[in-house]
């Protein structure tokens, strides 16, 4: 299967700082990338969908000004958590797809905000 | 009602046992269905897609009943390595095609 990488795999930051997470498709062109988060003992929740070269669309309840998504190329999308707070601590996972049916997931980024 | 609802579990079975997971979904426009497995603190990995005619992959059998909006996964001859959380996943369909909705997951532990 296709490979998606995420960086960093783990980040600890102070409250109020911003954190950028990168998602890269290594061997395919991801026309669409999705960002999910997973809180402990809960399932993945879709946060936003981004198509290369256009603005991301956010799910209901997800603040677009807080979670900035950029999908500038077919192999890279970034998620920036601005002014992070402890309640933003979560497991953030991206996925990429060439078509709309099969998504390839990155290994996730574990964010801890102190 | 949750969009995708799974057996609460957890399931704790001995090696060699057969175990079945059930899942229902609420969006009748959904067109694609999957089972993923997720190991602790890892990303979900696709186990198998689920087709209307039912499909089998080795020890795993998936069934779909569109009329009842019901999906199942059967694991035969359980192995220790099958221990994981199993996620029922539905492609939303319609104008949201491509967006996946995950069930809350069912934890399976296979013991010696």
What does this structure look like?
The complex is a heterodimer of chains A (114) and B (112). With 114 residues, chain A is mostly beta strands. Chain A has strands at 4-7, 10-13, 19-25, 32-38, 45-51, 57-58, 67-73, 76-81, 90-97, 104-105, 109-113. In chain A, the strands form two sheets. In chain A, strands 2, 4, 5, 6, 9, 10 and 11 form a seven-stranded mixed sheet that branches. A four-stranded antiparallel sheet of chain A has the order 1-3-8-7, with no helix packed on it. In chain A, strand 4 and strand 5 form a beta hairpin. In chain B, the strands form two sheets. In chain B, strands 2, 4, 5, 9, 10 and 11 form a six-stranded mixed sheet that branches. In chain B, strands 1-3-8-7-6 form a five-stranded antiparallel sheet, with no helix packed on it. The mean pLDDT of chain B is 92.
Q: Nutshell version of this structure?
A:
By secondary structure, chain A is mainly beta.
Runs of chain B in which pLDDT lies below 50 for 5 or more consecutive residues are none
Overall body shape of chain B:
globular
How much is the radius of gyration of chain A in Å?
A: 13 Å
Query: Residue-averaged pLDDT of chain A, rounded?
Result: 93
Biggest β-sheet of chain A, characterized?
7 strands, mixed
Gap from first CA to last CA of chain A: 36 Å
Oligomer: heterodimer
Strand content of chain A: over 45%
What portion of residues of chain B belong to β-strands? over 45%
Shape of chain A: globular
As a percent range, the share of helical residues of chain B equals: under 10%
| Main sheet attributes: strand count, strand direction, barrel closure of chain B | 6 strands, mixed
Query: SSE order of chain B in H/E notation?
Result: EEEEEEEEEEE
